[in-house]
Amino acid sequence: MKRVTIYDVAKEAGVSLATVSRVINGSNVVKGPTRERVQEAIEKLGYKPNAIAQGLALQKTTTIALVVPEASFVYTGQIINGLIDVAKIYNYNIMLHTITEGITDIKDIIEDIIKSNVDGVVIYNDKLMMIEMQELSKYNIPIVVIGNQIEADNICCVYVDIEKAINELTSKYLEENKTKIAIIEDRKNPYSCSLMVKGAEAAFRRKGLEFDGFLQIPADTRTSYAFLSNWMKDHKYDLMIGHRDSQAMAILNAAKESGISVPDEMEIVCVIDTKYNAMMRPQISSFSIPSYDLGAVSMRVMTKMLQNDETVDPKIELSYLFTPRQTTKN
Hints:
By secondary structure, this protein is an alpha/beta fold. Helices cover 42% and strands 17% of the residues.
């Protein structure tokens, strides 16, 4: 069966290609009778406008750039799924850009994004800060940031309040007089890690105490486990918190090797877990972060920005839920 094209519609309606294009893209230039004739031809022939062709007529590409760190694919998979599902509904294509730590120069990514003339950019990258954001915003490109709370023109963000989550968790343990609390540094996610520390510090201040449990990994130490396997031989805690489940697994292994019973002598919690946590024994207590919704809501926000919708909220906070498992007592 022959595919109906815009040329067929123009011939059927007895108008130019430009007239058909204007009707398809909602232009007010085309007057009533002519518009009706074109719409009747579209309906009669069963013509389906191509999304990319529509975009070109409007000087748009119907493409959204998505920037994610390669190292976080296990977690970001659900974010990407949510984003793509909503993009399909609104006929947008996704152009994926991955950042490999130590290899990819973020300036190259920004240059590629600008050259590709995308309609907007969705970014999930803990290390992408305001300098890079401002560089992109110079080109008047709508930006949605996942995870980071950023306030700037033409930038919206969708996030979970990690600082609040850790504050609540730390406060609970302090109420039980458990003051030996540690947070292990996550060099791959420094912004999120800083929020965790802020949350703990605020909880300690309310008790008139000072939080000194931020464990920074030495620059010459490659992994969390390499640091912890030695550190925990001489240091004991009531609670240790890791940003990712892989870090919490390192804590758990180091604790076992140091003869520390989990959860009887020490409890372990992570903020973000993945499918690997389900394979662990004991399973690690964690916060349930709505990763799919982070992607879906971010894409919906982007569509509103592109439509100049005045109701778009520049900061959208999604909820979290603490899920106790086998590495905590309660």
